[in-house]
Write a structure and sequence with these properties.
126 residues, alpha+beta, two-stranded antiparallel sheet, 2 helices, 5 strands, 33% helix
């Protein structure tokens, strides 16, 4: 494809990356691995082939399946807060909304950092 193709109802995306095609859209909750299970991958490829039959060579074995494991809260709301460790702030839980929420989360991280620094200064000064 010359442009990114998105099937919102199936929550799938297909786009060109150089001379290759990237297909995205699998979400496996609780699975922590770098590669999708073969059965899930086959079902995903079949679904993509059904939706976008001429967008890629689906029989090619040269692909590089991988999974971007991301912590995700049950409702995809980010978890942004200081921890019990100095200078460690959590910014996780967004799952597949990481890019979408990046700017807002960055603003909250800065706020948490400022609050954490103020707390540290108050404790040190008492």
């Amino acid at each position: 494809p010359d442009i990114s193709l998105t099937d919102v109802s199936a929550k799938t995306v297909l786009c060109r990356l150089g001379d290759q095609v990237r297909m995205a859209g699998i979400a496996d909750l609780g699975l922590v691995t770098e590669r999708p299970k073969e059965k899930r991958l086959a079902a995903f490829k079949a679904s993509m082939k059904n939706r976008f039959p001429k967008a890629a060579r689906y029989d090619a074995e040269s692909g590089n399946p991988w999974m971007g494991v991301r912590p995700m809260s049950p409702d995809s709301q980010p978890v942004i807060r200081a921890t019990r460790f100095p200078n460690v702030i959590l910014n996780c839980g967004q799952g597949m909304l990481g890019w979408t929420l990046a700017a807002g989360c960055a603003r909250r991280v800065v706020s948490a950092m400022a609050s954490n620094r103020q707390t540290a200064m108050t404790i040190a000064g008492s």
